[in-house]
Amino acid sequence: MQNPLLVLFFLACIACADMAKACDLQQGSSIPQLRIASRSANPGESYIYQLLNLALQKTRKDFGPCEAKLIEATIPRSRVQLKLNRGEEYDVIPLTVSRERDTSLLPVPFPVYRGLMGYRILVVRSNSSPDFSQVNSAADLADFSYGVGETWVDNHVLSFNGLNTVKGLNTAALYEMLKLKRFDALIRGSHEVISDKKRVSHENTSAEEKLVIAYPLPVNFYVRRGNTGLANRLHTGFERAYNDGSIDTHFDNNPLVKQTIEEMHLLKRKFIYLCNPTLLRDAAIDSDKYWLIPWPKEIKDCQNKFIASLTPPSIK
């Protein structure tokens, strides 16, 4: 018969080991650090840096001190994911939710941008853009072609909904392809349209002024598979921040968020909704508190049907 005290001791050791993984002491640092893979190394400009620091502060008493550290990641996202899973250079990365990422990494099920990534804006040529002014439904969108990245989830979403896509290697290449009239519009997250202005050559392009092509496209933080200590810490921190209102304050006061809502006139645009056939797990679509603009019933029903089936639909 097993000694119950030994069992409790064993479980406690597992819990302690798990907690230790939540934030590691790096060489040359006196405080454990959380290494964030990011496109920018400037904490003052980083929404994700500030958000993760908030989660770490909310869980300091439970898990101990930890400070976020941005690591600029200029290599392809696929290589970042490999390094993350090996425990090399990075501890966490924000990524659009996909089946492949859910399988290879460990997600923290919390919508980082509160829907902004899925509120897609069309970037068009400034002087020779097709006329989107008469678009009033998803069916009307089929008259145009859309530029997307080779690995973007948008490929499956747009194709499933009967829309034509043209693939590009990366964002910079897609802007050049747009200028060369390889497609009618480049599709970007509403906040990405703002940040693109600092990252890529965007001359002679502008945001289409009327539409939002909206579909659930949540961004989650991902950690190394098996690093449940870190995943639990972040999830606990985010839930506490939601419950005490500090995430709302962070979101509402963030310069990128404010600029996106104001410059894109986001809340005044016409929303055309599409279903995302790749989202096959509960991504809190039904929890209105997590989203800037709650999803309409028809989208919730569509997404829940896919989640319940646990079988991906065929992609056209």
General description of the model:
This protein has 316 residues and is an alpha/beta fold. The protein has two domains: 19-112 and 218-244, D-Maltodextrin-Binding Protein, domain 2 (3-Layer(aba) Sandwich), CATH 3.40.190; 116-215 and 263-316, Periplasmic binding protein-like II (D-Maltodextrin-Binding Protein, domain 2), CATH 3.40.190. Helix content is 38%, strand content 18%. It contains twelve helices and twelve strands. The chain has helices at 4-20, 47-58, 60-63, 77-86, 99-104, 154-160, 171-179, 190-199, 228-243, 246-253, 255-263, 297-309, and strands at 33-38, 67-72, 92-96, 106-108, 119-125, 145-149, 164-168, 185-189, 205-207, 211-214, 219-223, 270-273. The strands form three sheets. Strands 5, 6, 7, 8, 9, 10 and 12 form a seven-stranded mixed sheet that branches. A three-stranded antiparallel sheet has the order 3-11-4, sandwiched between helices. Strand 6 (145-149), helix 6 (154-160) and strand 7 (164-168) form a beta-alpha-beta unit. Helix 1 crosses helix 9, helix 2 packs across helix 9 (228-243) and helix 8 crosses helix 11 (255-263). The longest helix has 17 residues, at 4-20. The model is unreliable at 1-20 and 312-316 (pLDDT under 50).
